[in-house]
Amino acid sequence: xxxxxxxxxxxxxxxxxxxxxxxxxxxxxxxxxxxxxxxxxxxxxxxxxxxxxxxxxxxxxxxxxxxxxxxxxxxxxxxxxxxxxxxxxxxxxxxxxxxxxxxxxxxxxxxxxxxxxxxxxxxxxxxxxxxxxxxxxxxxxxxxxxxxxxxxxxxxxxxxxxxxxxxxxxxxxxxxxxxxxxxxxxxxxxxxxxxxxxxxxxxxxxxxxxxxxxxxxxxxxxxxxxxxxxxxxxxxxxxxxxxxxxxxxxxxxxxxxxxxxxxxxxxxxxxxxxxxxxxxxxxxxxxxxxxxx
Length: 293
Ligand code: ATR
Known about the structure:
This protein has nine helices and twelve strands. The chain is α/β, with parallel strands linked by helices and 293 residues long. The two termini are 22 Å apart. 2'-monophosphoadenosine-5'-diphosphate binds at residues 136-141, 160-162, 165, 186, 202-205.
């Protein structure tokens, strides 16, 4: 167990609000980081039903909680209870991190930054000047799409089962960034693959417990140089990534994005560089344990 015996009258509180929350890996990841950095903070999971969200945020103020992560289903709804929204989070339309600056609550979104850091540091790939095909147009796709456009991709193609959602997201990103973006139906995405430097899955296909599903994409049509990224981290290697690897492509699982979005949050709250290797190791251990029968 973690160092609960070390809690004292000066211990600061961080946490995560969501509903349900009991499967969140963030407490394990953040407490390991706090322990490694020898910081007098604890990170606690809070199950907050939708109707209790305003009271939970009032509670954050009243209790002097320094920082919260925000997860499903509160990422959009929480915005109206905060004092300020960082411009990137405003553009994405969702908050995943709240900083309590002496009673002033500021909302951020570190998902896109987490993805880009993972891509750059683990994938050794800078999206600038690249052609990127992104599968999905939901909440995660919004965060990634804006960040990719702002980081100077040559072309972004968004493919979604519900094509209207892809079109709407493309229009929003294009208006906000001036990037060249194309929307397509997921069923028509294969024709774009020969041009792709990076292919990203942001859909929930392949995610536990639907491990045997995968986006309907012919990864064999990608060029040899292509990097395939799946933001799903449970299972650790999705069927989609297994297929891409079998086709000789470089692959990256979503664990890195989870670690780096958490690292970015920790850096916002405490102004310290997060121990990403420790965080990654803890997540790996937890996911491995979950995979055992
Ligand atoms: P998140 O916030 O995790 O992105 P979301 O907003 O519910 O979750 O988005 C889920 C994404 O996965 C969407 O792009 C969704 O496609 P639709 O917009 O057509 O619903 C995609 N998705 C989920 N299940 C899918 C399936 N069986 N086949 C294809 N796409 C699927």
